[in-house]
Amino acid sequence: MQDKLMLMIPGPTPVPERVLLAMARHPIGHRSGEFSKILEEVMAGLKWLHQTQNEICILCASGTGAMEAGIINFLSPGDKVLVGNNGKFGDRWAKLSRAFGLDVEEITAEWGKALNPEEFREKLEADKEKKIKAVIVTHSETSTGVLNDLETINKHVKAHGEALIIVDAVTSLGAVNVPVDEWGLDVVASGSQKGYMIPPGLGFVAVSEKAWKAYEKATLPKFYLDLGAYRKANAKNSTPFTPPVNLIFALKEALAMMKEEGLENIFARHKRLTQLTREGVKALGLPLFARDEDAALAITAVIPDRHDAETIRATMRKKFDIALAGGQDHLKGKIFRIGHLGFVSERDIHTVLAALRETLAELSS
Ligand SMILES: *Cc1c(COP(=O)(O)O)cnc(C)c1O
Hints:
- The chain has helices at 17-23, 33-50, 63-72, 88-99, 117-126, 150-160, 180-183, 209-217, 227-234, 245-261, 263-283, 309-320, 346-364, and strands at residues 6-7, 55-60, 80-85, 103-108, 132-138, 140-141, 146-147, 164-168, 187-191, 202-207, 299-302, 322-323, 325-326, 336-339.
- The chain has 365 residues and is α/β, with parallel strands linked by helices.
- Strands 2-10-9-8-5-3-4 form a seven-stranded mixed beta sheet, sandwiched between helices. A three-stranded antiparallel beta sheet has the order 11-14-13. A two-stranded parallel ribbon has the order 1-12.
- Pyridoxal-5'-phosphate binds at residues 10-11, 62-64, 89, 138, 142, 168, 170-171, 191, 194.
């Protein structure tokens, strides 16, 4: 049926009507007093969401642009970095770091398993000369539905003392607790089309004082993503370049909605949705890809058992107008993923589970 698509992928995620309506107006001048006021309000909201007093830079970029900004602003060619890699996005951090000439050492885990914080501890403790300049971790690994133990990994980084902790929080921010100041996270990257409940197009980077000190010495080339320019503009409630003005309207509305719900309630809802999804899928007899204790609270990856994941997805799409995500890279056809991040309720999960039951029955008949 037309206009009935239900997005149950990990991003873009569904956008509330209130947010869509906030976008449906003429853009205004980005140097106007009116826009400055909106930016000021948005900035306060972003700090609330990140639980931080750190500077937050708003970029016109997808999440990967925010990741790239998180590398090139704080490091120099040849710098040694430890990169956690247990999925598509951890792998992206490694590729990105290599593309900019960093000396990358990877800590890996099989896709579907969490990174082992002990391996980080060993490497960091062995680094007596403090050669490791950054530890780079994907908090919620969207490709497999695994949540890495950022809190413990970060404790080992803090014990090292020198290295920055650089985090991809794209599918954890707004789903699970990411207390940026309490944990002392130096660089936190996120993107608008995930937990923020707004369309794709904005990237965010939260930057600690320690990271700004590293910025002063970092020599990788940068221009559009030079966060120093964003910091300077932030001080005047402004932006260095033309921002996607209507997405900022959307962001303001989405942050207002999040505040009305409250952080604790948002985290509790994502936990409930995850449990509901996992129990429902198990009850249908399908194995889950990640263990309960490693489960990300934004995405559930499912092993389709006797069926082909792509056939399940195509049937769900055709019969029920429900979009599910497939497996990435070597997991294509081997798993499918249900996104339950952002503007998602219990009713949505019940709908997906009922449709999945019908789909499995049809494919088995
Ligand atoms: C979506 C996502 C990104 C960013 O992807 P873009 O397509 O560049 O927005 C980065 N990391 C994770 C974990 C993601 O889920």
